[in-house]
Amino acid sequence: MTPPRSIAALLLALGASLPAATSMAAVPGATPDQLYAEHCATCHEGNVPRAPHAVKFQILGPETLYSAMTVGVMKEQAAALSDDQRRALAEHLGGRTLRVETGGPTPPACSGDSARFDLARPPTLTGWGMTTANTRHVSQEVAGLTAQDVPKLRLKWAFAFHGASRARSQPTLAGGAVFVGSQEGTVYALDLASGCVRWSFKAGAEVRSAPAIESWTPGDEQARPRVFFGDLNGAVYGLEALTGKLLWKVAANDHPRTTITGSPRVLEGRVYVPLSSTEWASAADPAYECCTFRGGVTALNADDGSVVWRNYTITEEPALTGDRNSAGALRRGPAGAPVWNSPTLDPERRRLYVGTGEAYTSPAAATSDAVIAFDMDTGKQLWHYQSIAGDAWNMACFIGGGPNCPEENGPDLDIGAPPILARLADDREVLLAGQKSAHVFALDPDNGKLLWRVKHGRGGFAGGVHWGMAFDGKTLYAPNADTIFLGTEQGEAKPGLFALDPADGSIRWFAPNPDICPEALKPACDPGLSPPPTSMPGVVFAGAFDGWLRAYQAATGKVIWAFDTVREFNTVSGETARGGSIESAGPVIAEGHVLVNSGYLFGGRMPGNVLLVFNVEQP
Asked: Which DSSP string corresponds to 311-354?
């Protein structure tokens, strides 16, 4: 099957849909699809150099699109459209409601005791991976739940991200509050007990990372912890955690297409920020000089955001390669190997570990699709293990092989999940890694030597392990997506949750996810497990593309509790929110609560805009 070339297929993959193009004027009643086909498609499907490809519309956001049509470079082309049509088109292509239109119901502001941060309750989880080792396992004490409690979980409250179509910032708990970002850039501190807003802060772009919060001594009334996060434009922020006051804001990198996909980690006065980019989308423009971005990690001083060190996954600086693409644009490279996971910290060895994505240019860099170890103190690259060689891909390949598509043309099998630093029963430490190819493997953290490697599913462009795995000290839990995306996937799909022996990768049990999606919601609804799971003693929680949050018995894989999030919810603001696919952000278990985001209008999945908080009803 040839990859889709049309804007219809492309936007379907990104979360929208378009009917067949019709020749229509900008008349009242015309749909946004029809307006796009008449006024925009000719230029924005790769036919006009320097016109942003439609793949970037959801990255740019509706505000940028609306501004371009009203006062910017597209003003003349949009002159035939009414203001209502421009707004509708910007929202449709940008994937959410215009920020200027997000007045809506106001979440209730906290007052009295609910407004106060409890300094006796410092964070019990250390960032996105729950531990510095990214195990995504919480102890009984931290969970505040037992395995027997899990079937009794009930929805406590729901919070609406007004105007959003996806919710992908994993919540963080501290001081009796829930810290979470949103698609339109607002970061909230919500009261855990009621969902009211203690404070909010408006960042410059979507915040998809999990806020990272400094710890403090329980009961220290002088504590002034800080919270750190990144946005889609590549900015990193440091705020007062108790007030939301901005302390500093810096660019994580000097490349203009840098973005923060993975969550920063904070330790010992430093903030470690993974570097990803949107250049994979820029490459869809035939006139773009592809490519110059290199993934990496930036270490910032937590006090002022100053750079302590910055290093890249590709050690060679990009340069002209001496030729041009078929559209006449200069070629540059090497580029790519982005880091879209939260760094794994190893304070004893003074190292941090990350997984990397595909190369953007040919020949593919030796550190693409790799696990890399950096020195925590200096940023020096210590070793790397490349799981799959020769993987060079960008969006030009997806739209049918544009001029910037590398010779390898994929297969785009990123290591998007952070490595887990795991201590085995024999007291050895290993790094456990998962990949979109459905490979799971173990490395020696001292030198990157491969210890074992297995393939537990079909894998592919949208298969295998996406965002993360969990390790409870005895068992490795690996979710598998294996969804159909391009129609070229080969072999048997095995969507579901695998329990593996961390010593050799052998399968202890497999819980296949049933295909219970209504036909009307397919293919956006899919049984694949993409977000990272989270474990507690006796139980593993995992979400899925189909919108279900399930709790599995750790010993057998039996489902002991399940909740369908694809429905409407009454929220604390009085606004009706809706759940959709659960993607990228995994469940959070702490202080007797389970939290999860639902909704992901991207990659062809079901939109939604809700944070759900569960606990056990007390008699």
From this structure: EESS-SPPEEEEEE-TTSPEEEES-B----SPPEEETTTTEEEE
